[in-house]
Amino acid sequence: MTDRAVAGSDLFRRVEAHYQEHFTREGRGEAFAEWLAPLRGDLAETATHGANPAFILHVLVCARWRRLRRLADESVAIRRLTPRKKALLVGGLRLLRTLGEPWLADLYGPRSAERVRAFLIEVGLLEHVLSGAVLETAAWQVAPRGHLQPRAHEQAVTACMMCLLDELKGHPKPRAAVAVLLEKGGLLGRSRGGAAGVAFVARRAARAQAVARDRLAPIGNTVWHLRGTFDNLRERLMPAREIRETAAFWTERGRAWGTTGPEFRRAFHGYCRIRGIRRHADELDRFDRELSVVRQQEGEAGLKRALANLRGESPRRARARPR
Fold first, then answer.
1. Shared-domain flag, residues 264 and 305
2. Which of 19-33, 100-114, 257-271, 284-298 has the highest mean pLDDT?
3. Would residue 38 count as lying in a domain?
């Protein structure tokens, strides 16, 4: 149905191999393989409902294998300091930052602005190494502002959940499927198995609808990272081919969805514009899956409305167009 050179299952194998190699380099290869083994069947089954198992694996890996890495633990010189000496050093650095450029300019004298700024940058870096940490996943890392909140893990699980629900919206029981994936992936507590897990997914997803779309909120920011890093990973592992621009190709695709070739092409371009993605064959597959969901849930009338909206037309105008 698409112009892709390689099937989606090949992308899954490449993503799996990528993460296996990543964790093997860290000395956690066996643990990762054991974690993945019970998930294989469920991941493969998601493809039968129009989902991308490679993306689902990426989301689960980033949520389950995230960790807080303290920079001071990686420095032999810092580990040799006693707790008291380390606290005194951090306190002195913070005092220097508080005094800031005015006091240091008086200390160093006139024409010392560049020297003072460079010194304060080094002070900030050293303080971060002494007391800072990096929140690290297998795909990205960030330096949390201040202390990491106790609910940060739950926020990461929620972001993972929202991505999975969106990817599995073509599944007849998406909440149950997500609960199973989270449980087998080690992201649900012991008391959240079975029906309790499905109820937990439903409650948490209902509360997180708004914040999951806010890139500045912790959950929405993680969702954004999960999607963006997967797009980058996919492009690196399997560069997407451009779609053929021949008229016959678009005519065939349009006929499959009950419209003309030019109208289908405009709808796909509108879909890519709204999503902020490039017009590649992989995205055309995703577009097909989303149209299938619309057809299943809203019928042919809903499908026509969706295509018209993506083309930037009103449904009334779309109905009035000659066929």
1. yes
2. 19-33
3. yes
Q: How far is CA 38 from the centre of its chain?
A: 23
Domain holding 85, by residue range, is: 69-136
Tell me if 141 is assigned to some domain. no
Write out the E strands in the chain.
67-70, 133-136, 141-142
184-204 tens-digit pLDDT: 999 987 667 678 889 999 999
Closest among 157, 141, 159 to 227, alpha carbons compared: 159
Last residue of a domain, one of 110, 136, 162: 136
Q: Which two tokens stand for residue 53?
A: 């198992």
Mean pLDDT of the chain: 85
Q: Identify whether residues 105 and 233 lie together within a single domain.
A: no
Task: For the sheet with 67-70, list strands across it.
Answer: 67-70, 133-136, 141-142
Q: Are residues 177 and 61 in the same domain?
A: yes
DSSP 242: B
Q: Please state, as a whole number, how many other Cβ atoms lie within 10 Å of the Cβ of residue 198.
A: 18
From 276, 284, 286, 272, select the one nearest 242 (Cα to Cα): 284
Given CA atoms 49, 54, 55, 57 in this order, what sign does their dihedral have?
positive
> Among positive and negative, which fits the CA dihedral 128, 132, 138, 139?
negative
pTM over cut 0.70? no
Output DSSP code: residue 148: P
Specify the number of domains making up the chain: 3
61 plus 158 within the same structural domain: yes
